[in-house]
Amino acid sequence: MANQIGDEGAQYFANALQINKTLTTVNLAINIIGDEGAQHLADALQINKTVTTINLRFNEIGYDAKKQLRQICEKNIGLEINLDVDDDKVEDEGEDEHEHVDEDEDEHVDKDEDEHVNEDDY
């Protein structure tokens, strides 16, 4: 069961992430985080270079906040953000919904060869 920290809890967590030097994987799935909370997390992830994976699936993150998270990933190529488009409130703008943002945990981008590789291939 999730903690349902919402936007306020995400803000507190984002404040902690700004000074974090040890956490590498963060799971905030199913926490009713909306655009405001996602904005706080995005701001923190611009500062934090330790986190490599953050799971934000099954929240209430809209299109603009997801777009900003994708932009963070473009700047920090070591960061993977997991989002779930089907369960988040997002308008279909016809854009590719993942650059470095993964929406399918079974697939990742091999950055050396820039091609999709299934985990089953390993």
TrEMBL record:
Superkingdom assignment: Eukaryota
GO cellular component: cytosol; nucleus; perinuclear region of cytoplasm
BP terms from Gene Ontology: nucleocytoplasmic transport
Entry-linked Gene3D superfamilies: Ribonuclease Inhibitor (3.80.10.10)
GO molecular function: GTPase activator activity; small GTPase binding
Keywords: GTPase activation, Leucine-rich repeat, Repeat
Keyword Repeat: yes
Coiled-coil region(s): none
InterPro entries registered for this protein in UniProt: Leu-rich_rpt, LRR_dom_sf, RanGap
UniProt keyword Repeat, yes or no: yes
Pfam families linked to this entry: LRR_6
Transmembrane portions of the chain: none
Region (Disordered): 86-122
Protein's name in the database: Uncharacterized protein
Organism field: Adineta steineri
